[in-house]
Structures are given as C-alpha cells and as structure tokens.
Design brief:
10 helices, Dihydrolipoamide Transferase, Chloramphenicol Acetyltransferase, 7-stranded mixed beta sheet, OB fold (Dihydrolipoamide Acetyltransferase, E2P), 19 strands, alpha+beta, about 25% strand, about 400 residues, 4-stranded antiparallel beta sheet
Length: about 400
C-alpha cells in the first residue's frame, strides 16, 4: 500500500514552499517520522517527516515550488528497500526509469537551490566547505560563505585587479536577490501599514523593584530551575495579565468579524542572521516564570541557528519586541498582522525621578504600545499600558494577580 507524503499546513498566510533538498533517494527505506526532505518557506526551513514506514519514491524534484496539500513523495509500506538504490548497476544506470519524475542527478552534485545561488554570485563551489552528506554543499553553506567578508570579497573580485594606487577612490555596489524570509517580511510590513489603523501610545517604567527582586532571588532561581531569571519573563507575565483584562488588545480582525482569544500566544521578536522572526510561546498564560524563561531561551537559540519549526512561528495573538538590546531609546513598533497589539521595550537608562518630595536617580525604560485603532480605542490602549506599568513597578502584583 502506498502512502502519500504531503505538504502540511504551513502556518498563517503561508501557502507555498520550495523543496530545497532531498534527504532520501528513490528506493531508500524510511521509518515513521524520519525526515524525507527539506522545504523552505518565507518563515523558516523545515524537514518533512515520513508518515509511514516503507520505501520512498520521489514525486517532486529539488527546486520545485510546492503548495499546501501537494504530494512530494510516496511510501510503499510493503517495500523492503534495496542497497542497489544507492549504488545502481551499470545496466540500470544506462536505462533509467522513464516514469521517474524526480530530477536527474547533476554532474556537479549541486541541488537546484544551491546551483542558483552559486551561479548568481559567480562562486566557485570547490572553494566552499560543504556540511551536507558526503561533504555536499547546502544552501546554508553558500549563504554563510556570502555573509563572510572573505566570501563577499571573492564574489565581487575582478579576475585581474589593477594596483591599488591606480584604482579611483569611488564607491562600488553589489546586487543580491532578497531571501524569501526578507521578501515575506517586507510584504507583511507594507500590508500592516495599508490595512491597519496603527497608533502608538507611550509610558515609562521605573525598573527599581524588578532589579531588586532579581538581585535577591536570581541565584536561588537559577539553582532551582537551572536557568537565569531575565527581564523578558516579567514583561511577558505583565502583558499576559493585562491582556486577560483587555481582551480586545489580544483579539484579531478577520474580514468583518472580531476574533477574541481566551488564551495568549505570545510572539517574541528575535533578530537572526536571515532577518527578523517572531517565534511564539503557545499558551503563555499557563506558563510560570521558569517556563517562560526556558521557552524564550529555546526559541531564541533555535531562531539564530535557523532551526525554528513552522509551528514555532504560527498562531501568535500578541507580540513583544525589544529594541533596547540594540540601544534603542524610543520607537513605534509595527503590528504583526492579524494581531491588534505589539509592545515595544527599549533601553534602560538612569534618570532623575521625583519620589515623593525627593528627586532620586532610578533605572527607567520607555514602553510603546502600537495598536489597531479599528478595534482598540485610545482609552483601552492607554489603560492597558498603565496596567503593565503598575505590574512591572510592583512585581508582587504579578505573583498575586491583583
């Protein structure tokens, strides 16, 4: 019996992908959940698992664009597999199966996606170290080579360069195709600007109480839970409690309907070498501080290593972005459609603050809430941000939920 390996649902607004690499060849045997191929969407790369145990027959070729629901391979559950599939005989090589739809092997051993990058940038594949099976070049190998200063220089060098003294002091330029992730990000940002009535409200937070709490319990927290107590978990928890009070800030608009969520899937914006991604902490309203810190660490590391899965990037109902890690003092973050709110964190600076009749120097952070004015009124947005401020300036309220 043959079982189809199909492209699954790829998350919000993602309908297609590119099959960038086959991990199994025709005739190879696979077990259930063993990876068959790698697909690339505009959000992340993902490995497609086998849905049954058996022998693989490829239907799509590397470099093909595939849609959700497309069959990329079939698995014969009655097949036993054959070593000859990896080392075909001379007779079999001379008479290939006319019915095979997968692309024939190329003399240079490069996949279509890798060959396209190599050709576009004028690279010599022999100068790039491959990390794939049997030293094979992967798309990531070529991208890493391009991102390095040495690799970029090699792609732009002329065959014979004149002496430096003879080169006029003029600027150069280089052209690179946008990645699918960058193109999708650009589309989403423009769409957000055109479809939402975005407005931003600001407030400031005295971080003294959080600093004191972390100073008192950071060591004990790390010893008990095996992870350090950072700042982000306080902002996630404060946002969750505020979102439970103001459900419209955690809602979304679909056509002419308002969709209210009785859960909080918190998106955390993460900067990666390939661009900005927003992994999602599912059911953050059910998480403890320790679980929040562990999940943030997991998705941030996976994002930087390019290992986020499609589910990791889907289903968010609200987003937090932290420009403060790069030194930003103030910004107006852009919504992540179809969400109606995003909280922007910023750099913490010591500032003079009036405390009673005295002026004291306190660590202060500016907060920004961008919201969709079609759904969230000014009163609710301001009150929501004030509620977050109150929770952060008195962390005991988060523990007692008051």
């Amino acid at each position: 019996m043959a079982v189809n390996v199909e492209i699954p649902e790829l998350g919000e607004s993602v309908t297609e992908a590119i099959l960038v690499e086959w991990l199994k060849q025709d005739g190879d045997r696979v077990e259930v959940d063993e990876s068959v191929c790698v697909i690339e969407t505009d959000k992340a790369d993902a490995e497609l698992p086998a849905t049954a145990a058996g022998v693989v027959t490829r239907v799509k070729a590397e470099g093909d664009t595939v849609q959700v629901g497309d069959t990329v391979a079939t698995i014969d559950e009655s097949g036993a597999g054959s070593p000859a599939a990896e080392e075909p005989s001379a007779e079999a090589a001379a008479e290939p199966d006319a019915g095979a739809t997968a692309s024939p092997p190329q003399e240079d051993g490069l996949s279509p996606a890798v060959r396209r990058l190599v050709t576009e940038h004028g690279l010599n594949p022999e100068e790039i170290q491959g990390s794939g099976k049997d030293g094979r070049l992967t798309k990531e190998d070529v991208e890493n080579h391009l991102s390095s200063a040495d690799g970029g220089a090699k792609a732009e060098e002329a065959p014979v360069a004149p002496p430096a003294s003879a080169v006029p002091a003029v600027g150069g330029e280089r052209r690179e195709p946008m990645s699918r992730l960058r193109k999708r990000l650009a589309t989403n940002l423009v769409t957000a600007q055109h479809t939402a009535a975005m407005l931003t409200t600001f407030n400031e937070v005295d971080m003294s109480a959080i600093f004191e709490l972390r100073g008192n319990y950071k060591g004990a927290f790390a010893e008990k839970h095996g992870i350090s107590l950072g700042l982000m978990s306080f902002f996630v928890r404060a946002s969750v409690l505020a979102l439970q009070e103001f459900e419209n800030v955690n809602a979304s608009i679909e056509d002419v309907d308002i969709v209210y969520h009785d859960y909080v899937n918190m998106g955390i914006a993460v900067s990666t070498p390939k661009g900005l991604v927003v992994p999602v902490l599912k059911n953050a309203d059910q998480m403890s501080f320790a679980t929040i810190e562990s999940e943030i660490k997991r998705v941030a590391l996976a994002g930087r290593e390019g290992k986020l899965s499609i589910p990791d990037l889907s289903g968010g109902t609200f987003t937090i972005t932290n420009g403060g890690v790069f030194g930003s003092m103030l910004s107006t973050p852009i919504l992540n459609p179809p969400q109606t709110g995003i909280l922007g964190m910023h750099s913490i600076q010591n500032r003079p603050v009036a405390v009673g009749d005295q002026v004291e120097v306190r660590p202060v952070m500016y907060l920004a809430l961008t919201y969709d004015h079609r759904l969230v009124d000014g009163r609710d947005s301001v009150t929501w941000l004030v509620r977050v401020k109150e929770l952060l300036e008195d962390p005991a309220r988060m523990m007692l939920e008051v």
